Amino acid sequence: MYASIDVGNIPTYHWATDLLVDTPDPDWMYRSRTSTLPVFHASGGNSLRQSLSNARLPRMLSLDGRQVACSEFGAPGGFPVLYSHQCGGSRLEAAVLDEAAFRHGIRLIAVDRAGLGASEPRLTFDRAGNDVGKVADALSLDQYGLLSWGGGAAYALMQAARDPGRARFCLLLSCPPLWLAGETGPGGSCRGRRAALALLGAALYCHGRLTVRCMSPLRRLALLEDTIGEADRRVLKDPPVRRWLTMVLEEAVCQGGHGFAREMADSARQWPLDPADLHLPVEFWYGSVDRVVSDAGGQWLAARLPGPGRVHRIRGAGHFFMLRHRDLLFERLHRLALHG
After folding, report:
1. Rounded CA Rg of the chain
2. Which of 101, 182, 200, 255 has the most beta carbons within 10 angstroms of its beta carbon?
3. Is residue 317 classed exposed, middle or buried when 0-12, 13-18 and 19+ CB atoms within 10 A define those classes?
């Protein structure tokens, strides 16, 4: 199912009563406000500066002999949503969502993947994504949702397939194309060839190590600005946003470049995931003028899901659309937490 949303003129933290969503349930965002989940309409939560400060001192969990870092944002008593950061990112990404999560009664739990941020590395690939499930166990979560940005989508989907009893929904922001085991993917059969993927993975690993060794986070941010569109450049002109993204990049490689390079290489692997195992609601959200990823990967994967799958585009928004439209996303998370 395809939905297109025009929110280009809506301020960051406000709603317009004439906002239309082309879905079979167009008024979900209004009905959910009368739900039994906790919603905090008054201003609350932390400022971005305070959220980042708190997140720099993560909660460390001992999982299978490794230390895994996580930080919590939003409403402490809200519905838990586990956040998977983008490829080569860190848990600090979720700090920018703290206030919106608080307002909509969401307890947002961001986890550093192995070798990134403060989490210790892991040697094997076949357990990728399992840290999220272990964190859910350690925090005694009976049920939870999954939220990802960029390359974190594969890890969120793998966790959803592993834990169908507790995972209620999966919302993926700017999901890139995923190459699944046994599938050719949206890019064609050549991308499914194991030898080509192995070569690409090795090249990406080397590229990742060189990137961390030779470029500061500020330099990487400058290169990013050369590749994104005008909508994203306007977002990144905001000094607090630039500081936030710089801290995210710095934290990701605080242990060195191996974790970052490993994630780059893993992005070229065929993921051991069968879409037929995903029986929960899965939604793909994109900016319509995103120059980093298109919605082709989401459309391809949504068509192969056995359960409800929707693809949404926000008109006039780019890769960083979640920064300007946080309330739209968390209103949807609130709705999914209530009704699935």
Report:
1. 19
2. 101
3. buried
What pLDDT is attached to residue 222? 75
| SS3 readout for 183-211 | CCCCCCHHHHCHHHHHHHHHHHHHHHHHH
**Burial profile 139-173: b = 16 or more Cβ within 10 angstroms, e = fewer:** bebeebbbbbbbbbbbbbbbbbbbbeebbbbbbbb
Closest CA to 61 of 155, 141, 170, 164: 141
DSSP H helical segments within 121-270, as ranges?
130-138, 153-162, 194-214, 217-227, 230-236, 239-252, 258-266
Both tokens of 154, joined, read: 């594969």
Residue-wise pLDDT for 133-172, tens only, equals 899 999 999 999 999 999 999 999 999 999 999 999 999 9
Structure-model confidence comparison of residues 172 and 6, the more confident one: 172
SS3 163: coil
DSSP code of 134? H
C-beta of residue 312 within 8 angstroms of C-beta of residue 4: yes
Please give the Cα distance from 250 to 234 (Å, whole number): 22
Give the separation between CA 333 and CA 171, rounded to whole angstroms: 8
Hey, what amino acid is at 41? Answer: H
User: What is the rounded distance in angstroms from the CA atom of residue 53 to the CA atom of residue 236?
Assistant: 20
Q: What is the pLDDT of residues 182-207, one digit of tens each?
A: 665 554 444 444 555 555 545 544 54
Strands 66-74 and 59-63: what pairing? antiparallel
Report which of residues 44 and 167 the model is more confident about.
Answer: 167
Complete DSSP assignment for 115-130: TSTTSPP-S-STTTTH
Give the Cα separation of 329 and 134 in Å (integer).
26
Helices (H) and strands (E) in the chain, counts: 13, 9
Instruction: Report if pTM > 0.70.
Output: yes
